[in-house]
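HUMAN: You are asked to prepare a plain-text protein record giving the amino acid sequence and the C-alpha cells, both parts labelled.

ASSISTANT:
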Amino acid sequence: MLKTKIASALLICLAFNKATATPIELPLGPITSFGNASIPSSLLTLTQNPAAPAMAHGKKESELYNSYGFGAVGVGVELGDWGTVMDKLDALSTLDPNAIDPAQLNAVVAQVNDAFSTLNQLGYVKSSLNSAVPLFPMIYSSQDMKSVYISADVSAQTKINYLDSPVQVTGVDSISATGALYTKALYRGDISIGYSQHLMDTSIGTLYVGGKVNAISLSLHKNVQGQSIDIANPGATAFTLDPSTFQYQQSLAFGMDVGVLLTSDNLQAGLTLTNLGNPSFSYPVIGQNCSTLPVAEQDSCYIAVAHSDRINLLETHVMTPQLKAEGAMLSSSGNFVVATAMDLNAVNDATGDPVQWFTLSSAYLPQGWSGLAAPEVRLGFRKNLAGSQMGYMNIGMTLFKFLALDIAQSLNTTTINDAGNTTTVPRSLLFSLGFAANF
C-alpha cells in the first residue's frame, strides 16, 4: 500500500538518523513535571533559573550545601497526525490510472494533490535525545548563601517531513507525484557557569539573584532529497536516505541568562530571562550554484531551489530571548508542593518549530532520611502553547533521594486504520532517567 510505504520510509529514515543525531526542548528528570519551577529538592530544576542554587541553600540548615549530578538522559518522539495522512493516502490505493475516465482526470489530480499536501502538512516525525554529562550539574554553596555552579549537557534533534509538488500527468495512464524528503538534524553541546546569591530580605520574603554564561556549540544539517512516486505502481517506490552523506556546519556562540527569585516560608515566585546576546548559528547553504557542484549533489540542489518558496535556503537559527515565570506553594512541613511555570513568549527551536511551555504540577517531597524509604512522587500537566499545541500528562518519582524516573504522554492521539485494524496511539512520548545527590 502507498500509505504504508511512505510511513515506513519516514520512520526508517528517522531510525537511521537517530543513531547520528536526534526537540532540544526535551526536559530532563523532574523538569518534565516541574517545568521552569525551581524545587529545592530537585537538583536538575535548580539550573534553569540562575538565582535558584542560592535559594536552595537558603532553605538548608547546614553551613555548606553541595550538589552533584551523576548524569541524566531523556528520549522522546513526536509524530504528526499520521491517521489523517494515511486515510488520505489509502484512498489513492484504489486508483487505477489505466481505468480513469478522461473526464474525471482533473478530479483525480485534485485528489492526489490534496493527499500529498496533507502529507506535507501533517506527516512529520521528530525524535529527541538529551543528556546531562555525568558529574554535572555541580553546585557549590557557601555559608553566606552564595553559590557557584557548572552544568554540561549534550543534545540532538532530527525532524523529517515530506515536501509535496503538484502531480505530473503524462497521458491518462501515468500519474506521478514528485516531492522530496526534507530532513533537519543537529548536535548541540552546552557548558554553563553561573553564580547566585542572597540579595536582601524584604517584608514579604527573601530575594535571590543570579546569572549564568552559556557556551553553546551547535552543528546543523539539512537535506532535500527528491522522491518520485508512481501512483499506478506505488509498491515500486524506493525510499532511501543516507545519513552518511549528511554535512554539518558547526558554530560556537555565547549567551547569558539572568534570574530572580522571591521566597517566603511557603511561597516562591521568580522570573528568568534567557538567551541574552541572541546566540546565532548558520545552517549549511543549500540550493546555491547548483551547476558547480559534483554531479551526485546537483539533483538535491535543484530540488531545493524548486521548493525555495517553502524552505529557507540561507537559514540562520537565532536563539531569541525568552522570559519565563514560575511560582510554587509549599506546605508548612515541606512535604507537599504545587508548582507552575510558563514561558511568556514563544521562540523557535533549531528546526523552526515554535516552543512555549506551560506546566502545572504537584508533588510529595519526603524530608530528611525518610526520602530513602518513601519516594518523591510527581504528577503534572504540560502544554506547548505554540507550534504543535500538544498537551501532556506527566508522572515521575525519585527513589532513594537519588534515582529520578519521569515519563510524559501526549493527550493528543492519532488513529491509524490499516487493513481494517484500527490503532490509536499518542502523538508524543517523553522518558527521562536521572541521578543526583546532595551533601
About this structure: The CA atoms of residues 78 and 428 lie 4 Å apart. Residues 105-122 form the longest helix (18 residues). Helices lie at 2-18, 31-34, 52-58, 82-92, 105-122, 295-306. Residues 1-24 have pLDDT under 50 and may be disordered.
